[in-house]
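Milestone 3.1: sequence recovery, worked example.
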């Protein structure tokens, strides 16, 4: 079943912006992603409790699809060192506890597929004597179990990934409804400028496994997180691909400047792509 444009989209934001966008979010029960809990200094202090309190107050009456972004700095799902994997598991367990408290139903985690040059798929992507997928499964086994216990889906976001096929294969290898693929449009476009497939191809490759999209624009020079229309992404082509999916992934603006959300929405609305 395909969808008719314009598609309903929401936004990612830290809790201080919830008051500003509360009416906009609740009027159509838009997708929402809370960014606070990606920060270690929030997780390691009482600030996370303040964020939870703000969420419960500002989102009273909200019934949309809400998620959060997991911590990601220095956390590698494909870490060869078991002590590093233990740190990753601990951080994600901590964040999932918070997710359960606020009723979040998705959590963004970063792809472990980082290669110098082309990914060595013919060799099975070995980490010394270990298969990379095997290591990622070992890292995420308790995380997936905890996520499933609270009805939350882990969405694995493309970061340095040069081609969608390998990330899609990783997501599919879990054979779990609680693991899905996430597309960051800016990350995909940066790789496109270096010879990778176009952004819409990521949607077509992931297909029914695509559960989440970060919408941000860039000129390809760096990870700009510009508002929509300020960069070079072909949004018409991308939204045509999104509309053809049998499911509707969570679609969230992820902008460097959250005050640009209204401008991004106007750009989409004027072109009949999103509302």
């Amino acid at each position: 079943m395909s969808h008719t444009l314009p598609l309903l989209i929401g936004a990612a934001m830290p809790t201080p912006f919830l008051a500003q966008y509360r009416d906009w979010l609740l009027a159509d029960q838009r997708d929402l992603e809370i960014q606070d809990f990606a920060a270690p200094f929030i997780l390691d202090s009482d600030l996370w409790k303040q964020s939870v309190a703000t969420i419960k107050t500002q989102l009273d009456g909200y019934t949309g699809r809400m998620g959060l972004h997991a911590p990601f700095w220095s956390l590698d799902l494909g870490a060869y060192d078991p002590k590093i994997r233990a740190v990753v598991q601990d951080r994600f367990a901590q964040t999932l506890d918070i997710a359960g408290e606020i009723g979040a139903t998705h959590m963004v985690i970063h792809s472990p597929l980082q290669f110098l040059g082309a990914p060595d798929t013919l060799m099975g992507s070995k980490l010394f004597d270990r298969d990379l997928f095997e290591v990622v499964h070992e890292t995420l086994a308790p995380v997936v179990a905890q996520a499933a216990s609270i009805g939350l889906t882990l969405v694995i976001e493309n970061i340095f990934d040069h081609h969608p096929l390998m990330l899609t294969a990783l997501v599919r290898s879990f054979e779990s409804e609680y693991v899905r693929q996430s597309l960051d449009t800016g990350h995909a476009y940066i790789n496109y400028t270096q010879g990778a497939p176009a952004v819409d191809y990521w949607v077509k490759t992931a297909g029914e496994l695509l559960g989440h999209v970060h919408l941000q624009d860039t000129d390809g020079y760096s990870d700009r997180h510009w508002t929509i229309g300020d960069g070079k992404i072909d949004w018409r082509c991308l939204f045509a691909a999104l509309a053809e999916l049998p499911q509707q992934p969570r679609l969230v603006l992820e902008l460097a400047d959250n005050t640009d959300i209204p401008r991004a929405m106007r750009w989409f609305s004027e072109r009949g792509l999103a509302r």
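The mean pLDDT is 95. The chain has one domain: 10-270.
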